[in-house]
Design brief:
Layout lengths: L2 H24 L2 H7 L2 H27 L3 H27 L8 H22 L1
Helix pairs in contact: 1-3, 3-4, 4-5
Subcellular location: Membrane
Family: Belongs to the UPF0382 family.
InterPro entries: DUF423
Length: about 120
């Protein structure tokens, strides 16, 4: 992945983070409250935001340093956001509790993104 691609995806995910968070707070409040999942939804938004910032910083690093580790990190962050936050959003709206079993896969992907980031910096720093 190029730095430009990572930064564009980071920008898109940032905009989605704001939109999803606002929609959850205003448009989905009754559904989330009825399902008892307001905190679950907020966790999805928080982790999406955190890792969007990480992705943007990674894209900035990639402008100056080329490393396969950074490519792997960016993929892990994107996949992790999709699976971790996506499963929490779906769980919050549908109350299908079996989705909670998928969430840790996304969490593992996010952790691996950080590990690849560390490896990339360690090898090139």
């Amino acid at each position: 992945m190029t730095a430009k691609t990572v930064l564009i995806i980071g920008g898109i995910l940032g905009a989605l983070s704001v939109g999803i968070g606002a929609f959850g707070a205003h448009g989905l409040e009754s559904t989330l409250s009825a399902n008892g999942r307001i905190e679950t939804f907020e966790t999805g938004v928080k982790y999406q935001f955190y890792h969007t910032f990480a992705l943007i910083l990674l894209g900035i690093i990639m402008l100056n340093i080329q490393s396969n580790y950074f490519n792997y990190a960016s993929i892990c962050f994107i996949v992790g956001i999709a699976i971790f936050s996506g499963s929490l959003y779906t769980l919050s709206l549908t109350n299908m509790t079996w989705l909670g079993a998928i969430t840790p896969i996304g969490g593992l992907s996010l952790i691996m993104g950080w590990v690849f980031l560390i490896l990339g910096v360690g090898k090139n720093g």
